[in-house]
Amino acid sequence: MADLMNTQQVAKYLGINEKKVYAMANTGAIPCTRVTGKWVFPKKLVDQWIEESAAAPIRGKDRKQERRFLLAAGSDDPSLGILRDLYTSHTTSGLFFMASGGSTAGLTAIREGVADVATSHLFDGETGEYNLPFIKKMLPTEVVVASLFYRELGLVVGLGNPKELKTTGDLVRKGIRFINRQKGSGTRHYFDLELARLSLAPDRITGYGDVVVTHLDVGLKVLRHEADAGIATKAVAHMLGLDFIPLTRERFDILIPKERFFSPGVQVLLDIIGSQEFRARLTPSSGYDVSESGRIIAQ
């Protein structure tokens, strides 16, 4: 990346459209200057601007200061790109960044005051509940939990299911190459619970130790014939033209610290989650159920 970026490069770097960059430049919301009539953006200052905004909640005196952008951390899903696009289109200078490190990392980011919100789908085998038992264990601060959607999770396999896989138990068959998710992700947590329920030792699965960090990465491994199967969402299988074997229907939530709940950015985000505009973009054919999107589950 060059030391000086133009509007197109900044848009790609931040994951927003170029019109948004122009709007931010005109209002002074992002470090930039004009050179021969064109906006230029020093990459070093843009990086510093991002880091300072993200670090603001950690400093006690700035704890309640509104961020220049909204930072989410936690589990990933293809629909979060839709959520980000709607957020940037509904705000004048707001940006929505997503750090996909897994559900557990999202809860940790909230606990440490790094993120405004977290996304999570951690399943508790004892209670059958999502996220709430883990919030009680991991978070000293009070949080509001809202439903984003329900989604289908299962085995993503090659088109036509060439290995004729049907269940999780088939993954121990000779010659089956599996691609796993990283520790701390909700998907890895579910898979390990499922193996324990079936009394299957992880070392019986070829590829159990091979990990990637997103659902899309799992699908791409299968698409490139680098793995025969992996656990991911139906949306990824649909996107890549792969076959899908459903295993479970799970609730995917957004977690918001109460001290951030009434901030303008979070309120805009919640309005979008409950909107028909958002729901219309998540289709049942891709495994989504948005009938309860925006519903407050706990507060």
Q: Which ranges are low-confidence, i.e. pLDDT below 50, for 5 or more consecutive residues?
A: 58-65
Distance between the termini: 43 Å
CATH class of the largest domain: Alpha Beta
The general outline is globular
CATH fold title of the largest domain: D-Maltodextrin-Binding Protein, domain 2
Structural class label? alpha/beta
The rounded Rg comes to 21 Å
Helix content: 25-40%
Task: Compose a concise summary of this entry.
The protein has 299 residues and is an alpha/beta fold. 36% of the residues lie in helices and 23% in strands. Strands 4, 5, 6, 7, 8, 9, 10, 11, 12 and 13 form a ten-stranded mixed sheet that branches. The chain has a three-stranded antiparallel sheet with strand order 1-3-2.
Topology (SSEs and partners):
Elements: E1 4-5, H1 7-14, H2 18-27, E2 33-35, E3 38-42, H3 43-55, E4 70-74, H4 79-90, E5 96-100, H5 103-111, E6 117-120, H6 132-138, E7 143-157, E8 178-181, H7 186-197, E9 211-212, H8 215-223, E10 229-233, H9 234-240, E11 243-257, H10 258-261, H11 264-273, H12 276-281, E12 288-289, E13 296-298
Parallel strand pairs: 4-5, 4-6, 8-9, 8-10
Antiparallel strand pairs: 1-3, 2-3, 6-11, 7-10, 7-11, 7-12, 7-13
Helix pairs in contact: 1-2, 4-11
